[in-house]
Design brief:
Layout lengths: L2 H9 L1 E13 L4 E6 L3 E8 L2 E5 L2 E5 L4 E4 L4 E6 L3 E12 L2 H10 L8 E5 L4 H15 L4 H25 L4 E2 L2 H12 L6 H7 L4 H12 L3 H19 L4 H7 L5 H12 L3 H15 L44 H17 L20 E3 L5 E5 L4 E6 L2 E6 L5 E3 L3 H6 L6 E2 L16 E2 L8 H7 L3 E4 L2 H7 L5 E3 L7 H12 L2 H24 L7 E7 L2 E5 L8 H7 L6 H7 L7 E4 L11 E6 L10 H5 L1 H4 L3 E5 L8 H17 L5
């Protein structure tokens, strides 16, 4: 960035001073890989040291000024006693018209994220302002804080004067290097694209584009490969359990870790461990771990990262997670992108065959729940949908629908979206979404991918995804975790004017439930107890709620079957997803006449376990294994298929006495 452009930015900037520190380091002391939490100035006062900022070296004698961007990595190696001042600040372009002009002209540049170092020609002038800033900052009154801000602007003016005199070159910090370094150091933590962009003061779009241009991968792809490389090493060189390894490399859910490992390596973690160790023994040589897959290309979706499983209608943990707010730049960029797209397109995009299924336009206003209702306006072919976020105007006949997590209900209504969040391979409706774009995990869709699809309607299941995507197209938030399966279907149907279709689906489900219950009653099964478990040799989770998933809704809610008394007492009072993690020693007390075990790739083989094998339901052949993928979802399409499976397997099993 040219110096005059930088000066213009400061003229249009709103500034907040965040902190002022005076730091003394003894001779020989080191500071390693310190990440700047905000943009900052480092001004050396006495002594000398070698400073590295994002790998670039600066030899700092007394009175040396260095500026670094938020997220930059700072290293200091002192040669003698070394004293410096550290001034942190936040700044952004305050005036909308100038900010818009700037983003249109230079969307890839964060105006205050520059890196430069120089020896001031008049060092004491800068020191005077910093001393006064430190004094004002130490006071707590509002007037003192105002004085701090005024002193900061004077400090910036003096520094700009000296930069201009010396014609100092300023350069933009490399976001790719910053991101690579951050991922290598923090791969164990929860990392998202928005978080990385905010960490380094860039837009998500710019960071993703720059990262892929330089490395060939998206930041999240690189994160996944880093984790898998670490997991490979642990699998071969340690005796850690799969759960311990998953947690060590950043996955809180071992089932998802196993799934994503197989997706990228080709075999499950246990198979990989066995294969490498057998090869090592056969060749009679030290274990050699396979090369990191970071160095090769692979095909994947936009974002393929889940620290699962945050759900109520499909899992063991309520769908609550730390909120991650998008940066102001991201929001502005999304808005500008849509504005430019609208200006450059004279006609609406015509969808290709099969890209969407239109919904008929109804002229009635139907409120199907307290959260969602709709009213069609035939004059402009739109429908007003009442939601928890207020009224949303949507197309009466949407053609390009994007839906996250709730795709099963959408498919059941006869609508084929153009894109959805990731669908597990074993999902009941997987074949219905053949050829549909995948946007990655339901709770972290990539806004870039959604923009490129040019949707005319977006349906989301959470506050976070609503905030992330609402500026792209009309977006309807369905708070599914607070609804029954029927209420959720009715709410989604109201968006498309398909209330009658939803009523038919619900009636058909109720009829199936009654027929199934009668069939099981005639076979002498309906009054028998049934348990649902998931886990392995280290312990089992026993499902203790109708909302847990893994067949709990089909068995306990719709068919009305009972669990053993010790479990049923909890099912009767628990309104959210719940389960107990038990050791094998006490597990038999929780197993009913029939037992359903949720299994997945890499699940422990329990055949040789004496306790498991001695359980009557297992010993007498009343063990029914259910596929994790198939029983993960709780939409009306999946519930129908799950009921068929459950009834068929119960009838085929030996009768309990």
């Amino acid at each position: 960035m040219q110096l005059d452009e930088q000066m213009k930015c400061w003229n249009h900037a709103a500034v907040k001073v965040l902190d002022i520190r005076r730091i003394v380091m003894e001779a020989g002391a080191q500071l390693s890989s310190y990440t700047l939490p905000a943009n900052g100035f480092i001004y050396t006062i006495r002594g000398s040291a070698v400073l590295q900022l994002d790998g670039q070296t600066y030899k700092a004698e007394r009175f040396y000024m260095l500026h670094g961007a938020k997220g930059s990595s700072l290293d200091i190696q002192t040669n003698e006693d070394f004293e410096y001042m550290l001034l942190y600040y936040r700044a952004f372009l305050a005036f909308p018209s100038y900010r818009k002009k700037w983003l249109l002209a230079q969307p890839q540049v964060a105006p205050f994220s520059l890196q430069y170092g120089f020896a001031p020609s008049s060092p004491l002038g800068l020191l005077r302002y910093l001393d006064e800033l430190e004094g004002a900052w130490s006071q707590s009154g509002s007037l003192d804080l105002l004085h701090t801000k005024s002193l900061f602007y004077q400090f910036i003016h003096e520094m700009m004067v000296q930069l201009a005199e010396q014609e100092i070159k300023t350069e933009l910090a490399d976001p790719v290097k910053q991101t690579l370094r951050y991922i290598q150091n923090h791969y164990r933590e929860q990392v998202t694209l928005d978080f990385l962009a905010e960490q380094f003061n860039y837009s998500s779009r710019h960071l993703s584009m720059q990262f892929k241009r330089q490395t060939g991968y998206s930041p999240i792809d690189y994160l996944i490969q880093t984790r898998i490389a670490k997991a490979r090493n642990l699998l071969v060189r340690s005796d850690a359990t799969l759960s311990e390894i998953a947690a060590e490399v950043g996955y809180s859910d071992v089932y998802y870790f196993s799934r994503i490992f197989k997706k990228h390596v080709g075999i499950s973690p246990i198979q990989y461990q066995r294969k490498i160790r057998e090869e090592a023994r056969a060749e009679d040589r030290p274990l050699v771990i396979s090369e990191s897959s970071i160095g090769r290309r692979w095909k994947s979706g936009y974002i393929d990262y889940e620290n699962h499983y945050q759900y109520i209608d499909g899992g063991s943990t309520p769908m609550k997670r730390r909120k991650t707010s998008s940066s102001m730049i991201m929001v502005a960029l999304l808005s500008i992108t849509m504005l430019l797209a609208a200006c450059s397109s004279g006609t609406a995009t015509t969808p290709a065959a099969g890209e969407g299924t239109g919904a008929s336009s109804n002229n009635s206003s139907t409120a199907v729940s307290s959260d969602t209702g709709s009213q069609t306006n035939k004059d402009n072919e739109t429908r007003t949908v009442s939601t928890v976020k207020g009224d949303v105007v949507v197309p009466a006949n949407p053609k390009r629908v994007v839906v996250l997590y709730l795709q099963g209900d959408v498919v059941a209504l006869g609508i084929k979206p153009i894109a959805t969040s990731e669908v597990f391979n074993g999902a009941a409706y997987k074949s219905e979404l053949e050829g549909v774009n995948s946007l990655g995990t339901w709770f972290e869709p990539n806004p870039e991918a959604v923009i490129d699809l040019d949707p005319d309607l977006i349906i989301v299941p959470s506050e976070e995804t609503y905030t992330l995507l609402k500026d792209i197209a009309p977006t309807v938030y369905i708070p599914y975790e607070k609804m029954t399966t029927e209420e959720r279907l009715q709410s989604i149907a109201s968006i498309f004017g398909k209330e009658q279709e939803a009523e038919t689906l619900i009636n058909n489900l109720n009829s199936k439930v009654e027929e199934s219950k009668q069939t099981l009653a005639d076979a002498g099964i309906l009054d028998k107890t049934v348990s649902i478990v998931e886990g392995g040799l280290k312990g089992m989770v026993v499902v203790e709620s109708k909302q847990y998933g893994r067949g709990s809704q089909a068995l306990y809610e719709y068919l009305g079957m009972k669990a053993p008394e010790v479990v049923q007492k909890k099912i009767d009072v628990v309104s959210e997803a719940g389960g107990s993690n038990l050791s094998m020693e006490v597990l038999p007390e929780y197993i009913g006449d029939y037992v359903f075990r949720s299994v997945y790739e890499g699940a422990d083989n329990l055949t040789d376990d004496p306790i498991w094998s001695s359980i009557p339901a297992v010993k007498e052949g009343r063990l029914i294994e259910i596929d994790f993928d198939f029983f993960y979802y709780s939409d009306i399409y999946s519930i129908n298929k799950q009921l068929d499976f459950v009834v068929e397997k119960l009838l085929a099993a030996p009768r309990a006495q």
